[in-house]
Amino acid sequence: MLIDWVVMPTCLPTVLRRCHACASGRFRANGKFRVNANHKLLDAWLLVLCAACGDTAKLTVLERMNVRSVRPGLLDRMHDNDPGLAAELLQDPVVRRRNRIALDWDDAWRLDTGGSDHLDREVIDVSVRFAARIPVRPVRLIAEGFGLSRPRSGD
Questions:
Q1: CB 3.0-4.6 Å disulfide test: which of 51, 77, 101, 137 passes with 82?
Q2: Could you tell me which of 46, 39, 94 has the C-alpha nearest to residue 74?
Q3: Would you say the pTM of this structure is higher than 0.85?
Q4: Helix, strand, coil percent content, the chain, rounded in steps of 5
Q5: Adjacent-strand bridge partners of 46
Q6: Helix locations, the chain, DSSP H
Q7: 100 or 125, which is more confident?
């Protein structure tokens, strides 16, 4: 029997970066952007809030880009504060590297198993798809999918 599971994001992941105001290491992204134009050059940032003190930090998305080289749809999504765009950008390795951030996906995803009618089978083939780049260990997926408890070992 083949079962399809899907790992789905439930919210934006926590951004791991040091806060300059309180030295906390966790930020929340809520999909807000700031776009600044200087003549024909654009800068754009994804705003994140410190989980401890609420201070705002800016993650660089565009830096000194010519207005004509930016896709119009991208600018519209930034002006609309599109949370889907925020999710895409947080998963972009270039954005993460440029801003020296990491992501914490704990409590930001769920496993859609399609029900529990497979639990009584002896042999099961499982196919797992990811709706986003969510780093989850296979052992954790198996435990979650089959409702098994396991000790927390730095998962």
A1: 77
A2: 46
A3: no
A4: 25, 35, 40
A5: 33, 59
A6: 72-79, 83-91, 93-99, 138-145
A7: 100
